[in-house]
TrEMBL record:
This is Putative secreted protein (Por secretion system target). Keywords: Signal. The keyword Signal applies. It comes from the Bacteria. Residues 1-20 form the signal peptide. It comes from Chryseobacterium defluvii. Pfam families: Por_Secre_tail (PF18962).
Amino acid sequence: MKSTIFFSICSLLISIFSFGQTSTELFETESHSSTSFTDNGVIFNIISQVSTFDIQGNFPGTGWNGTAIDNRYIDNSNFSMSGASFSIKTTSNLFKVNRFWVFLSNIALNQAVTGTLTVTGKLAGVTKFTQTKTTGFATSLGSTNGYTLIDLTNLNGQNYTNIIIDELQITAGGNYTYVGLDALVWVKDSGIVLATNETKASKSKLSMYPNPTKGPFIIKTDENSKAEIYDQAGKMVKSLEVRQGENRADISELPTGTYLIRTLSGSFKILKQ
């Protein structure tokens, strides 16, 4: 009991004193036609699923930085098509998303058509959240240069800003075939220190021992799940399936250091000696 209370207090204190770094990517210093960009020391790749997306820099004055017109953004201007979809993904760091702005229209840049926008967050290929917005889009240039704010603090009544991901996927639906994205506000997270409501494990659902360990340890859980192990840089270094009950695991092959183990039931730090 005392060790449980001590762990909870430590987790709370770590969460209070270890803040992620909030950054805004405006794309103004990025290269036209590039399929990657760098912000706050993190490299993001632009991955096209349907249509071709990259950095747009040929049409000055058609972006939106959240308060004023700017010049560069991500879009699919040359290859607009139905179901346009792309991801912003990094394999070197985990991150959270606060908000971003989107311009939605058909191929003729008519915003007065109807459509949807689906926002999906993924971690190691697993969907952590997904929501489809169907109303409230800008239908003309207006005061935001035609952009609509997508605020993840209240997306369809849900707050997704505390969910750690490594990939943000944007998918247009209906008559929307063109997508422009600008002013991405995100939070850099090492993946080692999580917010308080993310680190706590469900009651009696997850435990692991011994900790520290020289390699072998036991994961005990009440449900079938997948355990993902991240290093201090936020890179997933190992994954394994865990079943209800006790599961033997081993990280002998990993270097000495602190690792984060995440399952559906919760997260724990483990020290490899």
